[in-house]
Amino acid sequence: MDKVQKYLWVFTALIVFLAVQKIPKADGASKANMYDLHDDLFTSRGYKKQVRPIADDSNSLFVYLAFSLLSLVDHAGQARRHLAARCPGGQQRHKADTTGVSVGSTKVL
Q1: Does residue 91 contact residue 83 with C-beta atoms inside 8 Å?
Q2: Can you tell me the distance from the alpha carbon of 105 to that of 76, in angstroms, rounded to the nearest whole number?
Q3: Cα dihedral angle (15, 39, 80, 96), rounded to 10 degrees?
Q4: Which pick of 21, 34, 59, 74 has the fewest CB atoms within 10 Å?
Q5: Range 37-61 burial, b when 16+ CB lie within 10 A, else e
Q6: In whole angstroms, what is the distance from residue 21 CA to residue 14 CA?
Q7: CA atoms of 83 and 94, how far apart (whole Å)
C-alpha cells in the first residue's frame, strides 16, 4: 500500500468517525428521532427515491452518505434485474449438477 492510499484510508476513517460522533450530539434530537431517521434512510419501508437533501448543512454528511449507499444498492439491484432479463436461467447454469460439475455452460464429468 503506497503513501497516498494510506492517507486516503486515514481520511475516510476520520470522516466516518466524525459523522458517527456528530449524530448523537445533534441539537434537539432524541434517540427515538435517530431511530426514526435510521428507519427512513435504511429500510425499504421508509426509503423514497424522490427525496434528496437539498441544502448543504454541516450536519448533513451522514444523510449524503446514506443516500449514496442506497443509490449504490438500487443500481446493483437494477443491474441484477437487467442481467436476469437478458439471460433467463443464467443462475442455474452455474450450479453444480448431480452427475458432474458445471463450469459456465460446459459440464465437466
Answers
A1: no
A2: 24
A3: 100
A4: 21
A5: beeebeeeeebeeeeeeeeeeeeeb
A6: 10
A7: 14
Distance CA 18, CA 59 (A): 10
Q: Can you give the pLDDT at residue 18?
A: 75
Q: What is the CA radius of gyration of the chain?
A: 21
Distance CA 67, CA 95 (A): 35
Question: Taking 60 as the threshold, does the pLDDT of residue 44 lie above it?
Answer: yes
Helical packing angle, 61-86 and 31-42, nearest 10°: 30
In 10 A of CB 16, how many CB atoms?
A: 13
Q: What is the pTM of this model?
A: 0.23
Distance in angstroms (rounded) separating the CA atoms of residues 49 and 74: 9
Q: Which amino acid is at 64?
A: Y
